[in-house]
Design brief:
The protein is built from 23 helices and 26 strands. With 880 residues, the protein is an alpha/beta fold. Strands 1-10-2-7-6-3-5-4 form an eight-stranded mixed β-sheet, sandwiched between helices. The chain is globular.
Length: 880
């Protein structure tokens, strides 16, 4: 142990070993000191100088004791934590300790990531039954993670601990496709079973007491098991990984009935993990019509009914449908529905994870200077794909659409840059998803492959060709400039290179890229595990198989043209989220402006709902309370109407929220109307503005303020202001409904502040007259907008409210909003974001007007019965 790396690796292993044995009974500092004493016995002064060892210890102290930080999981539990699971008393933790060491030694995971898995899975065990007792139990819960964020690693840790605690049978329901099931099976064989020196078996081999029998394999689902198999289900530790398919689940039920019969006892402690629990598992039957539960839902419930001791844990990044299940849905044959009646646990966001917050301006901050990663595919590409209505129209794809060709060239650039950054042996993937029809996917794959081969030949043998010049131009405009902007805005240090270096790398690396078709008709598979040493470079053309669960390693370029207005479907199709910090500046999403807009609305909604979740953890509330918050959230449709049959929102809850216009129509009549509506309001409140104007000057931004404005004037403005008809964020109708509710029922929001915001002077600004009020400088928004990402059918300013502006004139700028405020933003039309509105003819009498409304926190407890139509809430706080 003469090198720093050896010392650090061995230290990590021993630290985690002591941590598992002692758990929370000792502090981090005590664990650290104990590990150091252990290490001193293995390193002599002859090997390494004592001063060097002390320097290593100091560095390790900073990591393990000093500044290490990770967010804790958020837990909503119906009952108090059970008493049987006491982490201080856990001794024989063979499977968990082995998995933990595997993550440290083999996967080189950071300690804070492992700690999160440890804490989260402990919280689950505090919520479920003791497998060593003879009494029956039935616990159901849900774990909320992030798309592509490591949910599999979390339930892998849960499985390892389950076997340590005495659970005998683990069934993993893994998606609806063979590829995902096989991927999950392989992962669990490596990280739970570990036989024959595979995966965790390289850390510690199983003995007879710690042997796990896998009744399924990578090649064979449960359908490959003989129906009359003789097997001791109660005496063995057993694992099955099955897909959510009618035939497969029916076969699973028959198999379990046979094995339970052989055991002569159904008290077999069973853990069922439902990966992607919002897919296929939800019962969408209509109870009012007396319909039976839908097939997959029915079969999962029938499987649970077979056992007296069972736990169901769903994992998802989009919990909407799962939390809107009717809590009292129950049938005689299938038992209770899959509602997470006992617990809901939110996984903290991993530090290296790039999700919606990194890709989009989820905080809605007008000062966010990050460059856009979205590229509009344009009218030509859209027209081609829109023309394909049926699967037999695949013949229409006979040439590569121009923006898809550019996306392929962008992928060549990203692979080359990653190679120059020292990431050449890492996986690189490009996603192309345009149709659910496999025939269309097959035709597109052929077109893409032909175009790609032509590009490769030009790159390798024709350095002066038009294609190479095209790629060079794309590199300089799309990548060099944006990487520099990322470095400015986020204090990152992404390396950039001259074109000659990129081109030389591209010539060698382009031959290592494969084009694959990933769907049910193709035998091609994404076998990243077979290319661990050199990395797999792939352009994956597919559809639904690529849109959920299946991980695309090293995904940089996504070409996506399918749309949905449902949160859950839209979020799951966004495969570009993941651990991309080392190359986030290279990631691009080629899609339509409409889809990009919906994604960003979704990102904002998810950000706000996560904030709601964080707030609930301190209020001792149940999963149903979170469902109520979701129902009242003023954004897009949460999930499909079928999945929302059991709950419908009546009102949106704007308590302590800021809502602002960001989408604007391009129609001149709309701009004229909103200008007139604004002028009328200012004429009414102008005398008050004159009294307040001088004292309200704050820094460079000038505010014209009218206080004690009666609510009637605010409602009149909102009623007559025309929001963009496709807007899902700033619906005047829902805002007015909320204001009137609090006015009529609670006497709140009676008096408002109206604040007209004036911009900072600039060379290209616009002066405007708003009736009696003259504004010298309109507010500039969208100055840094990328022309390539500007929608053609509307104006999207991203955000108009600067950071903290909603708390303008508050006594405590860090507290909740205390006064209802209506902000009026006269917007400068001389910016790139208004590029497609040049024919409107903006002038000193006509400019775009935006508004924002900042709502204080309501003093009343707006209970769930206000927000739910035809629903009630029982004593436990669940929707009935």
């Amino acid at each position: 142990m003469t090198t720093k790396e050896d010392y650090f690796n061995f230290f990590k292993v021993q630290y985690n070993t002591f941590k598992s044995i002692n758990n929370s009974s000792v502090s981090k500092e005590e664990l650290f000191n104990k590990t150091c004493m252990f290490m001193d016995n293995f390193v002599t002064n002859n090997e390494v100088e004592k001063r060097t060892i002390e320097n290593w210890k100091l560095e390790l102290y900073t990591t393990y004791v000093g500044v290490i930080y990770h967010s804790s999981p958020v837990v909503l539990r119906v009952n108090e934590p059970n008493g049987w699971y006491d982490v201080k008393k856990r001794t024989d933790r063979f499977f968990w300790q082995r998995y933990q060491q595997y993550l440290v030694q083999k996967k080189k995971w950071k300690q804070d990531v492992i700690d999160v898995i440890d804490e989260t899975t402990d919280e689950i065990f505090r919520s479920i039954g003791n497998p060593k007792e003879i009494s029956s139990f039935d616990f159901r819960g849900l774990v909320l993670g992030y798309v592509q964020s490591g949910k599999t690693a979390n339930f892998t840790g849960l499985i390892n601990k389950a076997y340590d605690e005495g659970y005998k049978l683990v069934i993993v329901l893994s998606g609806i496709h063979n590829d995902l099931r096989a991927q999950t099976q392989l992962r669990l064989e490596e990280e739970v079973i570990g036989k024959s020196n595979i995966g965790v078996g390289t850390i510690l081999n199983n003995d007879d007491d710690h042997f796990i029998h896998a009744l399924t394999s990578v090649e064979n689902d449960v359908t490959g098991i003989q129906a009359n198999i003789s097997y001791n289900l109660s005496g063995n530790k057993t694992l099955l990984v099955v897909k959510k398919n009618k035939d497969v689940l029916e076969r699973l039920i028959d198999l379990m009935k046979n094995l339970i019969s052989q055991a002569g006892d159904s008290h077999i402690p069973t853990l069922i993990i439902d990966d992607e629990a919002d897919q296929a598992s939800i019962d969408t039957s209509d109870k009012k019509k007396g319909e039976d539960p839908k097939t997959i839902n029915r079969l999962i419930r029938e499987t649970l009914m077979l056992f007296e001791q069972k736990v169901y844990v769903g994992y998802t990044a989009t919990p909407f449908a799962n939390l809107l299940i009717g809590t009292h849905n129950e049938t005689l044959d299938q038992g209770q529905d899959l509602y997470p009646k006992d617990f809901l646990i939110g996984l903290p966001k991993p530090t290296a994870y790039c999700g919606p917050d990194e890709f989009f301006n989820t905080s809605e901050d007008a000062d966010d200077g990050r460059p856009s990663l979205i590229v509009d595919i344009g009218e030509t590409d859209e027209k081609i794909f829109n023309s394909i209505k049926k699967k037999d129209e695949h013949y229409k794809l006979n040439t590569i659409p121009p923006k898809l060709k550019e996306a392929i060239e962008a992928f060549l650039i990203t692979v080359s840059i990653r190679g120059l950054r020292g990431q050449e042996n890492e996986h690189n993937s490009m996603l192309i998803h345009t149709s659910r029809f496999t025939s269309v996917q097959s035709s597109l794959k052929d077109v893409v492959e032909e175009a790609f081969n032509d590009i490769v030949n030009q790159v390798r043998f024709s350095p002066n060709s038009s294609i190479v010049k095209e790629i060079e131009k794309l590199y300089k405009l799309e990548f060099v400039e944006k990487s520099a902007l990322w470095n400015q805005s986020r204090e990152t240090n992404y390396d950039t290179f001259n074109w000659k270096s990129v081109y030389e790398k591209m010539k060698t690396i382009c031959t290592k890229i494969d084009v694959m078709e990933i769907n049910g008709n193709s035998e091609e598979t994404l076998e990243y595990h077979r290319h661990k040493e050199k990395g797999l470079n792939v352009i994956a053309v597919g559809g639904d198989k690529l849109s959920r669960g299946l991980t695309l390693e090293g995904l940089t370029i996504s070409y996506y043209y399918r749309n949905t207005l449902m949160y859950d479907t839209l979020m799951q199709m966004g495969r570009w989220f993941g651990y991309r910090k080392p190359y986030l500046d290279l990631c691009r999403i080629y899609t339509s402006s409409n889809i990009a807009s919906n994604f960003e609305h979704l990102a904002v909604a998810m950000h706000q709902l996560r904030d709601e979740f964080e707030l609930l953890k301190d209020e001792n509330l149940s999963p149903s309370n979170y469902a109520i918050r979701m129902l009242a959230h003023p954004k897009m449709m949460l999930t499909s109407n079928l999945k929302m049959r059991n709950a419908q929102a009546a009102y949106q809850n704007y308590s302590n929220k800021l809502h602002q216009t960001r989408l604007f129509s391009k129609e001149k009549d709309v701009f004229i109307n909103n200008m007139a509506v604004t002028t009328k309001l200012i004429e009414i409140i102008y005398p008050n503005i004159l009294q307040q104007e001088k004292k309200e000057r704050k820094g460079k931004t000038k505010y014209h303020v009218a206080e004690h404005v009666p609510v009637e004037h605010v409602i009149s403005f909102l009623s007559n202001y025309q929001t963009y008809e496709g807007s899902t964020k700033s619906s005047s109708e829902s805002i007015i409904e909320y204001i009137e509710l609090l006015n009529n029922d609670y006497g709140e929001l009676r008096n408002w502040k109206v604040i007209i915001v004036e911009g900072i002077p600039s060379n290209h600004n616009q002066q405007v007259n708003l009736g009696p009020l003259s504004i010298s400088n309109c507010v500039t928004r969208g100055q840094s907008a990328d022309i390539n990402s500007i929608p053609r059918d509307r104006v999207d300013v991203k955000a108009i409210v600067a950071a903290g502006q909603e708390r303008f004139d508050e006594t405590d700028r860090k507290s909740s909003i205390t006064t209802p405020k209506l902000f009026i933003y006269p917007l400068n039309p001389n910016t790139p974001v208004f590029h497609h509105t040049k024919d409107v003819g903006f002038n000193a009498s006509l400019i775009p007007i935006g508004f924002a409304v900042a709502f204080p926190e309501t003093n009343n407890n707006i209970s769930s019965d206000i927000y739910l139509k035809n629903k009630s809430v029982n004593e436990e706080g669940r929707i009935q």
